[in-house]
Amino acid sequence: MAAGDGRYFCTAGRGLEPFLAREVRARLGATEVDCVSGKVFFSTEAEPGELRKLKSGERLFLLLKKHTPIPVSRNKGKVLHEIKSLVIEEPKYWLDVISIWRNLHGCGGQKDNVSQENPSPLKRKSEEEANIATKRQKMEQVRGTMSEECKAEGGERCVVPERKSAQDCWTESKTSLEDPSKSSGEEPIANKQLSFSFRVSCRCSGAIAKVLTSQEIGRAVGIALMKQCGWRADLRDADLEIFIHLNDIHSVVGIPLFRLPLANREYIKTAGLRSTIAWAMASLAEISAGAFVLDPMCGLGTILLEAAKEWPEACYWGADISDSQLEGADVNIRTAGLMDKIELLKASVKDIPFGKKFKITKDIRLLPDILQEMERVLRVGGTIVLLLSQDLHKCMDGITKHAENDSPNAISDGTSETTTAKALNVDGDSSSLVNGVEESFLSSRQTRFGSLVPDGVYGVSLGKTDAFIYKYRKISSAGNQ
């Protein structure tokens, strides 16, 4: 692939790839959209400011190479040669790449403002407890990103900060290098336009991970680039990061456009539900101008924030029983400047979002009654979007089975410690599932629940656990079915 094709790829949490594919088409006018596990490849002529607006992705990269998997043998030297052949090009190629990269950032030789904006709060010292809590939240966001990508690309090995287990995760190597020209006497190619700092990040999984570590690959590629282009390795503040991902599906080389993940929202001070999941749920609600949207268990208000930012012409309400959650939601709303868009009130729908926290497990028995109450307040044509744990996913099947037999209050056996039900659009002039998300639809045992008609189930990853997004539409008023 030649440099400068306007070709990108974006990583996504497991189950969100179809949402991201739909979004890049709608928001960026993207073409040649290709979904694989954990990634979406696409072409677009959109500017960096538009690229940054993507809401369902994790990290965005300029795509340099996308090839078939590297042939694996027991000869490490041969495999490394194949990998270096994939990455190493003539200096003119890299000159073109860097020129494109700098043009994307709108700078001429200086470090780009785009990649430097919103520096990580983890690097700033704080004297206030609130800022310390914020830093912890940001750390969880970054770890969540790593966990999301790890889940999406299962079977990889990884090293996550403060976690020593390397099982079932991927390994990331930010390779430390010494200038080989100092020891070998070789003169690097002199090219002032290419003379700047870089680092190599490598992830490998599958067959190749059994032969080489990501550290070995990153070091070999880094030394080769230093010899050929005269670049200087810098792990902490590199001008350019080269990302290599090798697995049994493909070999990918890219350059990240932004230092922080897209999922790190500058308008969310305290993180709750992962922003990508919240945005996906809001997108399914098909919110229109003038609609009334209620999140009856809003927590820190992440769904409402994502919805109000994207669809500002609607009216939003959030309710929660927890004073601390409502206080956090209020801070988030003020940080986002959405005080005139979102109203909060204290109300109890038992312990649906945080059953594990408050140790109330009997709430699961109330799920049929909660659904009936949602059905009652929902307007005809309105939508309900729910986020359910794996246990509640199984229970929902039991509820809908009984609903078929006119026994909506019955529920299958079993309890759940973690339950979440979110995002109720009580206005509703929507009629069908948005195009482009059918791929994640799980056509399991879905049946009508009163006047609520199922309109999709989507399996997603929350990092440490899996969950399911349910969508229902109300097709008739209660009593006129």
Please describe what this structure looks like.
- With 481 residues, the protein is an alpha+beta fold.
- It has helices at residues 17-28, 48-51, 76-87, 91-105, 113-116, 129-152, 180-184, 214-229, 275-284, 302-310, 323-336, 355-358, 367-377, 390-404, and strands at 7-11, 31-36, 39-43, 60-67, 171-174, 197-204, 232-233, 240-246, 251-256, 292-295, 315-320, 342-346, 383-389, 424-425, 452-461, 466-474.
- The strands form 2 sheets. Strands 1, 2, 3, 4, 5, 6, 7, 8 and 9 form a 9-stranded mixed beta sheet that branches. It has a 7-stranded mixed beta sheet with strand order 12-11-10-14-13-16-15.
- Helix 3 (76-87) packs across helix 8 (214-229) and helix 9 packs across helix 10.
- It is elongated.
- The termini are far apart.
Helix content: 25-40%
Q: Largest beta sheet, briefly?
A: 9 strands, mixed
Order of helices and strands: EHEEHEHHHHEHEHEEEHEHEHEHHEHEEE
Structural class: alpha+beta
Rg (CA only) = 24 Å
- Give the CA-based shape: elongated
How large a portion of the residues is in β-strands, by DSSP E? 15-25%
Question: Outline of this structure?
Answer:
By secondary structure, this protein is an alpha+beta fold.
